[in-house]
């Protein structure tokens, strides 16, 4: 920029006109008839933005899309932010630790190389391939889907310990090494650790413990790759021994997951090694061939069988029962190299061996691992039933005195201890339920029910058995859950689970009423509000899906009865919110739900503003989703009042801090509701509704705009009905509609900005010549008058916070040059001079005038340095445009216009700019010299008036530097005359 304009503070009296008085040719009250002349060479122009994009309707969508693509929030929500990428990685890699991903990778390799196709799939020969194990039936949830939930649920803050000989650190433990025991320890070398290297690591956090387990896994794989098979086996044995440690019992399920992951990898390594060594000669050839997927033991060479037997012999020599069991289970698949039907025998044998484990928790997880491995090997289910039989046989020991003393020592409750059994028990019962008839499941149900304290078994059963089996016996389950002992669990937890099942799989029609009645009777009588709300949260969906309004209203009344005393609802906002959402979203008659006696009282329970806002928003969203696909209308006053109450809550939540997206979402919901209200031919009631809505929805411009359009349609509908021939009554009604719009439109916050923008965008479309009162006149004077008046109004108009500093002025500067000014016209430069006046006022601390209750920019910005810098920058831009125009006048030899423009710009600078800035002082002197140089075209009185005005400024200014510059300028001015 050529100039360096810095605005200065001025005295209010400086705003008085000492100079440039001009005659006003128009009057705002004068009525004129304007006729547009379509002259040749005059064409309508479409306003464009700075980059040349047309603002026509065809391009508006392009502009909005371009603006949206630059929005950083839009970029973030497309899933490219780090959290979204992390979540995507969680979903693709099972979202687990490196050990888990390794297991998943090995399982995927196994699925590609060895796993047969599922039912209905075809092999390379085109024939359907029969499943070879239970997991291929796709009737059971994969273990990989459960392990993550176990690791997240069963955590601890207590310190853990680990004993191993393959990790550095910790305290050394020395075993007995007397000569008399050397032979004994040599035979038991697979049990004992390497001499002098056993270390116990104490005081490990959970995270540190997991890291150590991952290190053990790494050591195992590394040892195997280095052909150190014995070392790898010892690591597997030591990992298995960790499962006998229940010192931090609440972490045991997660420990089981981590250790069995390592054992799975060990089993896979052994199996792959044996298969590599089992290459055989294909009949009819002399070449060695790898074993096919469905190989049989007779295809395995004797050397590979011998190696396989050696592995089992090594494992059988492990002295301790638990590691011997776990390691053999890990390589159980290797029996396929030895005999055809060995799996069933081995599984039943191992099932009986587990009976030797005394701790019921350790035993049930050993059975879980056995069943998990066995399900991937064979279709035989006999051993699963035997494991369940053994569990039921020793089930009573879970509650005996020894266990109670143990959990007391661990400082956990019986409820917390019982919950530790669920992952293992769920998996076993899920296996039991595969391909089992309903009669067999009934027998299992009866056996579990007859046990003392059967709540754990029943919970696991409901989680594992088919939902249709549970639903068809819903009445029976309600009866059982209402009467059994629930020590260690809660009755509410059981009914919550049952409600969840019945919500997705409803019971037979003839049972539904009895199930709801008996269940709610038991739930209401539990005497525990916490449990009641947890159950009601689940049973709300069942009630709203399968029952009418009467039952739903009774259900809500029950909830209100439980929540109202002692303001208990303040502690259960989440459950109440879920209940309200489920009732509305699942209702078959959403209008009927809104009209229930107990629905609005339920909403009144939400006293916390943020939660009530969320609930009301969800209710309106559910209502929109439920009615969006039909043409249903609202004409019931009760439903209308209910939705109006909800809309009022949303409207009152909107304030200056509400985000634009939130405001748009709320407005959309309310506008949808307004559009649904239709009282038919009762136009007066329709207008009364709009009047009430206007008083309620004063904070939302979109809602007010919708109301205005609706009232206008109401007026046009009235005219259409009377076919243009209004009666006294209809005419009065239409006038009432017009008065409604007249009153409502000014209350729209964005109305002024929208009008101003529309007016400015029309400037380029104004034709150059029009006929006024029968005379053809130029519109340049009209444009200048309009811009001057607009600038005067703009002084009091606050900036829109979403559009930037002086947005409307920038729009003005962009559209005015597009008006077709005459070639030698001075109107554009005159407009720029008035813009400088406006900018000079905009930089003042206090503006010369205001409108009551309107916060202008002086209060909005408070002379913020950033705002003043923006104003100064715009002054420099406008001044540069004027200097360019001066240069153009010099080239065209328009001396009079050049001298007058130089004098006018000189006055603007000494009035509003800081003359202590060297560039501006020099520019002021040059402008005066240019005007004096052409004094023959300027009136002599004008030069003297300018000198007088400059002296006045020098005398009245309170800025010392400005005063000195003005006196210096006066000396130079007088020296040139």
Give the strand order, joined by hyphens, for the main sheet. 1-7-8
Q: Describe the biggest sheet? A: 3 strands, antiparallel
What gap, in angstroms, lies between the N and C termini?
Answer: 31 Å
Strand content: under 5%
- Computed structural class: mainly alpha
Whole-number mean pLDDT:
82
Task: Kindly provide the radius of gyration, computed on alpha-carbon positions and rounded to a whole number of angstroms.
Answer: 44 Å
| Chain oligomer state | single chain
Helix percentage range: 55-70%
| Poorly predicted tracts of residues | 13-22, 27-80, 90-96, 107-126, 171-180, 192-196
What count of helical segments does DSSP give? Answer: 44
Bulk shape: elongated
Q: What is the count of β-strands?
A: 8
Model description:
About 11% of the residues have low confidence. Helix content is 61%, strand content 3%. It is mainly α and 977 residues long.
Provide tags for this entry.
3-stranded antiparallel β-sheet; mainly alpha; 977 residues; elongated
């Amino acid at each position: 920029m050529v100039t360096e304009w810095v605005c200065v503070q001025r005295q209010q009296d400086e705003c008085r006109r000492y100079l440039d008085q001009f005659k006003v040719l128009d009057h705002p009250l004068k009525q004129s008839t304007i006729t547009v002349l379509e002259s040749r060479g005059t064409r309508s122009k479409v306003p464009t933005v700075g980059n040349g994009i047309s603002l026509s309707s065809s391009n508006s969508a392009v502009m909005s899309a371009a603006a949206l693509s630059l929005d950083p929030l839009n970029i973030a929500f497309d899933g490219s932010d780090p959290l979204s990428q992390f979540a995507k990685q969680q979903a693709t890699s099972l979202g687990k630790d490196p050990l888990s991903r390794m297991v998943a990778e090995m399982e995927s390799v196994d699925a590609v190389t060895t796993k047969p196709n599922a039912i209905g799939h075809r092999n390379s020969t085109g024939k359907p391939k029969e499943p070879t194990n239970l997991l291929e039936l796709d009737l059971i949830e994969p273990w990989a889907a459960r392990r993550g939930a176990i690791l997240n649920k069963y955590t601890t803050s207590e310190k853990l310990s680990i004993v191993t000989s393959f990790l550095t650190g910790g305290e050394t433990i020395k075993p007995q090494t007397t000569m008399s025991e050397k032979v004994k320890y040599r035979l038991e070398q697979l049990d004992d650790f390497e001499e002098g290297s056993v270390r116990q690591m104490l005081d490990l956090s959970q995270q540190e413990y997991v890291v150590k387990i991952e290190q053990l896994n790494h050591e195992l794989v590394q040892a195997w790759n280095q052909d150190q098979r014995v070392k790898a086996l010892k690591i597997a044995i030591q990992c298995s021994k960790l499962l006998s440690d229940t010192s931090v019992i609440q972490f045991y399920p997660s420990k089981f997951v981590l250790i069995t992951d390592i054992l799975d990898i060990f089993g896979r390594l052994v199996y792959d090694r044996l298969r590599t060594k089992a290459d055989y000669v294909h009949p009819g050839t002399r070449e060695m061939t790898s074993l096919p997927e469905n190989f049989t033991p007779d295809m395995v060479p004797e050397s590979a069988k011998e190696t396989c037997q050696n592995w089992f012999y090594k494992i059988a020599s492990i002295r301790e029962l638990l590691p011997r069991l776990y390691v053999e289970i890990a390589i159980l698949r290797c029996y396929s190299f030895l005999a055809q039907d060995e799996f069933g025998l081995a599984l039943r044998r191992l099932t009986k061996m587990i009976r030797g484990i005394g701790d019921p928790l350790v035993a049930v997880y050993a059975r879980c691992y056995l069943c998990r491995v066995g399900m991937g090997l064979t279709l035989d289910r006999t051993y699963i039933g035997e494991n369940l039989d053994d569990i039921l046989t020793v089930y009573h020991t879970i509650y005996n005195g020894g266990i109670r003393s143990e959990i007391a020592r661990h400082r956990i409750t019986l409820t917390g201890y019982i919950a530790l059994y669920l992952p293992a028990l769920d998996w076993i019962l899920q296996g039991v339920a595969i391909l089992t008839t309903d009669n067999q499941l009934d027998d299992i149900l009866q056996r579990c029910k007859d046990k003392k304290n059967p709540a754990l078994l029943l919970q696991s059963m409901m989680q594992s058995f088919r939902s249709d089996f549970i639903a068809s016996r819903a009445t029976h389950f309600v009866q059982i859950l209402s009467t059994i002992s629930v020590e260690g669990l809660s009755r509410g937890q059981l009914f919550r689970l049952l409600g969840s099942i019945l919500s997705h799989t409803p019971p037979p029609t003839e049972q539904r009423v009895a199930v709801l009645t008996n269940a709610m009777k038991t739930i209401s009588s539990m005497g525990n509000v916490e449990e009641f709300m947890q159950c009601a949260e689940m049973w709300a969906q069942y009630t709203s899906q399968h029952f009418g309004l009467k039952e739903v209203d009774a259900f809500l009344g029950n909830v209100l009865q439980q929540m109202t005393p002692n303001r208990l609802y303040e502690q259960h906002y989440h459950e109440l919110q879920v209940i309200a959402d489920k009732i509305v979203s699942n209702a078959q008659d959403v209008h009927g739900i809104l009209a229930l006696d107990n629905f609005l009282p339920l909403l009144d329970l939400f006293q916390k503003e943020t939660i009530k806002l969320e609930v009301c928003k969800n209710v309106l969203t559910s209502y929109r989703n439920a009615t969006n696909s039909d043409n249903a209308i609202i004409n019931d006053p009760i439903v209308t009042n209910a939705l109006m109450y909800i809309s009022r809550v949303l409207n009152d939540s909107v304030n200056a801090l509400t985000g634009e997206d939130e405001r748009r979402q709320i407005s959309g919901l309310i506008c949808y509701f307004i559009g649904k209200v239709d009282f038919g031919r009762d136009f007066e009631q329709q207008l009364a509704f709009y009047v009430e809505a206007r008083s309620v929805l004063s904070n939302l411009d979109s809602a007010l705009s919708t109301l205005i359009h609706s009232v206008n349609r109401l007026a046009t509908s009235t005219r259409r009905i009377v076919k243009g021939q209004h009666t006294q009554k209809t005419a009065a009604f239409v006038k009432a509609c017009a008065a409604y719009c007249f009153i409502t439109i000014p209350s729209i916050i964005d109305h002024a900005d929208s009008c101003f923008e529309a007016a400015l965008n029309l400037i380029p479309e104004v034709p150059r010549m029009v006929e006024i009162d029968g005379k053809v006149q130029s519109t340049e004077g009209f444009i200048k008058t309009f811009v001057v008046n607009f600038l005067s109004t703009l002084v009091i108009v606050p900036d829109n916070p979403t559009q930037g500093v002086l947005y409307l002025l920038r729009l003005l500067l962009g559209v005015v040059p597009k008006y077709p000014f005459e070639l030698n016209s001075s109107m554009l430069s005159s407009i720029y001079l008035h813009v400088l006046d406006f900018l000079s006022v905009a930089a003042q601390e206090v503006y010369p005038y205001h409108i009551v209750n309107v916060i202008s920019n002086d209060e909005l910005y408070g002379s913020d340095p950033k705002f003043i810098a923006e104003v100064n920058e715009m002054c420099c831009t406008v001044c540069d445009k004027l200097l360019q125009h001066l240069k153009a006048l010099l080239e065209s030899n328009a001396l009079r216009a050049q001298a007058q423009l130089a004098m006018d710009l000189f006055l603007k600078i000494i009035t509003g700019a800081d003359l202590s800035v060297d560039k501006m002082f020099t520019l002021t002197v040059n402008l005066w010299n240019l005007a004096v140089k052409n004094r023959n075209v300027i009136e002599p009185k004008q030069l003297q008036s300018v000198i007088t005005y400059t002296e006045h400024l020098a005398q009245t200014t309170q800025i010392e530097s400005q005063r000195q510059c003005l006196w210096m300028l006066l000396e130079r001015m007088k020296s040139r005359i």
